[in-house]
Amino acid sequence: METGNTPAEFPLLDATRAFLAKPKKMLIGGEWSEAATGRVLDVLNPANATLLARVPEADATDVQQAVAAARRAFDQGPWRSMKTTDRERLLLKLADLVEANARELAEIESLDNGKSVLVAQGLDVAMAAQCFRYMAGWATKIEGSVIDAGIPYMPDSEVFSYTRKEPVGVVGAIIPWNFPLLMAAWKIAPALATGCTVVLKPAEDTPLSALRLGELIQEAGYPAGVVNIVTGYGHTAGAALASHPQIDKIAFTGSTQTGKLIGHAALDNMTRMSLELGGKSPVIVLPDVDVDRAAAGVANAIFFNQGQVCTAGSRVYIHDKVFDQVIEGVAKIAQSMKLGPGMDPATQIGPLVSAKQRERVCGYIESGFAEGARGVAGGKRLECPGYFVEPTVLVDTNHTMKVVREEIFGPVLVAMPFSDIDTAVQLANDTPYGLGASIWSNDLSAIHKLIPRIHAGTVWVNCHSLLDNALPFGGMKQSGFGRELGRAVIDQYTESKSVMMNYA
Ligand code: ADP
After folding, report:
1. Whose CA is nearest to atom 21 of ligand 1?
2. Rounded distance, CA 148 to CA 108, Å?
3. How far apart are CA 172 and CA 66, in angstroms?
4. Do 305 and 398 belong together in one domain?
5. Rounded to whole angstroms, how far apart are CA atoms 399 and 415?
6. N vs C: which end of the chain shows fewer Cβ within 10 Å?
7. 263 Cβ below 6 A of ligand 1
8. Which atom of ligand 1 is the closest one to the Cα of 255?
């Protein structure tokens, strides 16, 4: 098969070439299998729109087999009774394997998603390894509590009462295409730490790193069926997983629209769910800032990963005292950014993930212009086979515009001035979303007063989109519910059982 590799000046590891060249199968019950129908779907390299690989196109039949395998592994397999220290050891081993294969995983991610290979290695892969390692620690620290029960209607009672945290069961994990390996780790790691089993469905645009992770899971020695990976489309394989009655919990990251569909399907079976959804995260720049530092921060908040970040700082509100200078700085940065394939270490803006995403982003830019916005940087797609869109900065925007109200998921910033902090707060919160926000200032008093007024799951100060495995991450309002990472995620993958023991 002809593979859509990058030009010869960016050579791939032999291991990456070997992985790309071999036929791709899904991981079900510890075996590598094709789709029951034998159908495959094409995976394209977004840097040049050529064929990168083909993966099985799972449908409801394959999902049924994967869920059955996960169910068996949870109900009957050795996993449930495995010592927490052994689960910890297996997670640590997986972390080591991810690290040992970091460059290969980064190349696969870069070719599949379009992102910079340096970002893929330094952030996606490194944080995925660290996520397995961090969650390994939780495997031995899952605790209930001993509760002194009063039982008012049994005055002479002597009851020993406690709670235990038990694994929620079989987890269906549906993940997006912007950080494919990292999102797989965010779901699989807490599931394994708590003793759950998993069926993972990566996004149809970016299934490759999950399949490579599946090989590493096999190499680490997990019992069959503990982790199953099915590749396929959302409306077929994803929908079958979300509505499956044998799934105990759905863990989803993706758009709010799809999250609502999944949430409805899950609720019909009373399936537990955590939904990490879209955002339109505000960036607030106060008048005391160092203009150059703020401009660099604002540019990074929106353009990192081509703006394909759920917490991307896609709306900026800048105090009118510094508005022109900060925007001039952001526009200069946008105009100077080097567009290119993710495999080129000099690339600052890679291609968007797909032609569909490029059309969507360009549609938003056009709608902004049609509604009266003015571009001070970018505004166009590149005329080449790859899915490139220029980093774009729009001014003269307001809250009636689609480009200001809706999530774009691309390198498009809308900027608005404000003159008093109450207006900035009102505008920042005037959105259905509540995932992230950042404040740029050195005025400690203003910052502390502002933080509680912003409706967002994370507020950054003088930084944006920073993540750590120890900090809970998730959204308010239509950005979803539940929290990933940190201690908080353990609650999402466990059920609490109360025990009362009469010893009178
Ligand atoms: P996008 O539209 O940009 O692909 P989505 O939020 O729809 O973003 O996709 C995120 C994940 O959700 C992907 O793995 C996708 O296959 C899956 N998905 C899409 N539609 C559905 C659906 N109806 N049911 C379950 N999963 C879905």
Report:
1. 234
2. 54
3. 10
4. yes
5. 11
6. C
7. no
8. 6
Give pLDDT tens digits for 388-433.
Answer: 999 999 999 999 999 999 999 999 999 999 999 999 999 999 999 9
Residue with token string 């691309």: 410
Determine the atom of ligand 1 nearest the C-alpha atom of 357: 3
Confidence class of residue 7 from pLDDT cuts 50, 70 and 90? Answer: low
> Measuring from atom 24 of ligand 1, which residue has the nearest CA?
239
Q: Determine which residue's CA is closest to atom 23 belonging to ligand 1.
A: 235
CA of 204, closest atom in ligand 1:
16
pLDDT tops 90 at residue 8? no
Answer whether 207 contacts ligand 1 (Cβ < 6 A): no
Q: What is the mean pLDDT of the chain?
A: 97
Q: How many percent of the chain have pLDDT more than 70?
A: 98
In short, whether 193's Cβ falls inside 6 Å of ligand 1 is: no
Q: Is 247 in the pocket of ligand 1 (CB under 6 A)?
A: no
CA-wise closest residue to 288 among 462, 443, 425: 443
Q: What is the CATH number of the domain that holds 369?
A: 3.40.309.10
Domain of 435 in residue numbering reads as: 282-468
Give the Å distance between the CA of 253 and the centre of ligand 1: 9
**Residues 250 and 359 grouped into a single domain:** no
Ligand 1 centroid to 239 CA: how many Å? 9
- Given the structure tokens 């404040």, which residue do they identify? 439
**Catalytic residue numbers?**
276, 310
Distance CA 362, CA 26 (A): 34
Q: Could you give the number of structural domains in the chain?
A: 2
Is there a contact between 198 and 70 (Cβ–Cβ < 8 Å)? Answer: yes
Entry pTM:
0.97
Burial pattern 146-158, b for ≥16 Cβ within 10 A else e, equals: eeeeeeeeeeeee
